[in-house]
Each structure stands twice: as C-alpha cells, then as structure tokens.
C-alpha cells in the first residue's frame, strides 16, 4: 500500500512521496533547511495529506521517513509548526516523540479565521553528539 515511500536523502530539500490514485493530491513532505551556518543541524518539516486521504497512516509514514532521513543526514533536531486546532496532527507528533515547545497565538490566517500555531520539536541526538 503506502510502504513504497521513497525518502531522498539530499542535504537540501529532502522529500518523501507516497503513491496515490490521484496525482493532483499527492501526499507530500519536505524539509526546510535554514541557510545560516549556525542552524545547519536543524531542519523544519512540513507534511501535507489531502483531506480525503487522511486517517490512513500516510502522514505517519511520511513523518517516519523524514525522521529517518534527518538521522542519516546527521541532523540534531527537527521542528515543525502545527495548527493548534489540529488535534490529530498534534497527537501524531506526540506519538512519534515530538514535544510541544511553543504556542503562538493568531499567527496564521486561513479559512476566514486566525490560527494559533504550536511548534513541535524532536531531538535526534543528545547534547554530547
């Protein structure tokens, strides 16, 4: 099914693709790699799954591939912003080992409303590594 996820392990722009019957709604995931040398061991992730494809484990598989890719690349931490009202995404991040490190009020605007964003973080290495 979705076990055929490929994770490209390029230093910039690692991407994961899961197969889908509709090519216009391909679940996608990516890293945002800061361009400042001081942040070279940090990546920010984004995962998007079409509404009609949610609750099938696709997001979790994409996240697992991104986490593994970040480890292979020698990254120290992964961060990501989650809509504070998206309980499913929040709980998935917790289950994968992320923790909430910040809550920003009304920093996003879509669907004709202001959105709070919760920042989640996973440490991949301990401080001595």
Task: List strands and helices in order, with pairings.
Layout: E1 6-7, E2 15-17, E3 28-32, E4 42-48, H1 58-72, E5 77-83, H2 87-96, E6 99-110, E7 113-123
Parallel strand pairs: 4-5
Antiparallel strand pairs: 1-2, 2-3, 3-4, 5-7, 6-7
How would you spell out the order of helices and strands? EEEEHEHEE
Strand order of the largest sheet: 1-2-3-4-5-7-6
Helix content: 10-25%
Which architecture would the CATH scheme give at its second level?
A: 3-Layer(aba) Sandwich
How many discrete domains?
A: 1
Broad structural category: alpha+beta
Q: Which consecutive residue ranges, at least 5 long each, have pLDDT under 50? A: 1-20, 22-29
Rg from Cα:
15 Å
Termini Cα gap: 36 Å
Supply the CATH class: Alpha Beta
Task: Estimate what percentage of residues fall within beta strands.
Answer: 35-45%
Q: What name does the CATH topology carry?
A: Aminopeptidase
Principal-axes shape call: globular
Can you walk through the features of this model?
The protein is an alpha+beta fold. It has one domain (6-123): Aminopeptidase, CATH 3.40.630.30. It contains 2 helices and 7 strands; from the N terminus they run E-E-E-E-H-E-H-E-E. A 7-stranded mixed beta sheet has the order 1-2-3-4-5-7-6, with helices on one face. Strand 6 (99-110) and strand 7 form a beta hairpin. The longest helix is centred in the middle third of the chain and has 15 residues, at 58-72.
């Amino acid at each position: 099914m979705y076990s055929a996820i490929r994770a490209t392990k390029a230093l910039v722009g690692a991407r994961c693709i899961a197969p889908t019957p509709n090519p216009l709604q391909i679940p996608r995931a990516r890293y945002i790699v800061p361009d400042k040398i001081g942040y070279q061991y940090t990546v920010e992730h984004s995962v998007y799954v079409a509404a009609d494809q949610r609750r099938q484990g696709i997001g979790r598989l994409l996240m697992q591939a991104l986490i593994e890719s970040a480890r292979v690349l020698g990254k120290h931490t992964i961060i990501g912003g989650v809509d504070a009202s998206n309980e499913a995404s929040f709980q998935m991040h917790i289950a994968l080992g992320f923790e909430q490190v910040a809550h920003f009020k009304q920093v996003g605007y879509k669907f004709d409303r202001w959105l709070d964003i919760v920042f989640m973080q996973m440490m991949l290495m301990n401080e001595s590594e």
